[in-house]
Structures are given as C-alpha cells and as structure tokens.
Amino acid sequence: MAFTGGTGVELVPLAEAESGLIAIGAGLAVGLAGTGAGIGLGTAAASAAAAITEKPESFGKLLVLLALIEAIAIYGFVIAFVLSGSIS
Could you report the per-residue pLDDT of 8-33, keeping only the tens digit for each? Predict the structure, then answer.
C-alpha cells in the first residue's frame, strides 16, 4: 500500500523507482552506443573504401580499425546486461 501524503498522488516505493531508472539507463546505454557506433562506422567505412581503392594492401589494417568501432556497440550491450542484472 502506498502513502499518498494527503496530496492524492501515490508515491512509488524507492525500490521500484530505482529499478525503473536502472532500466532507463540500460536502454540509453544500448541506444547511444549503437548510435555512436553507427555514425562512426559509416564515416570510417567510407574513408576506408577510399583508402583501399588507392592502396589495396592496407585492407587488413583498416578492417581491424572498423572492428574496434563495432566494439563500442558491444560495450553498450555489456553495460546494459550488467545494469539489468542489478534490478531486483
């Protein structure tokens, strides 16, 4: 049963409010990491395509750099799983 404090507005227990904020944080972690990785990957892939056209032997180095950008999105998923695991 929630306490209204005489205002008619039902106050949410702290544990429920905290778990809601953690869920919002997990969603933001995935969304912002995915957006940042997508923008970075699009820019870097366009530059990599131009560089490979001029110098084909640089393909391996550029592939590694593109993989590092993709790791940012994976970090976002990891953070979201850690945060969602802490919801009681």
Answer: 666 666 667 788 888 898 899 999 99
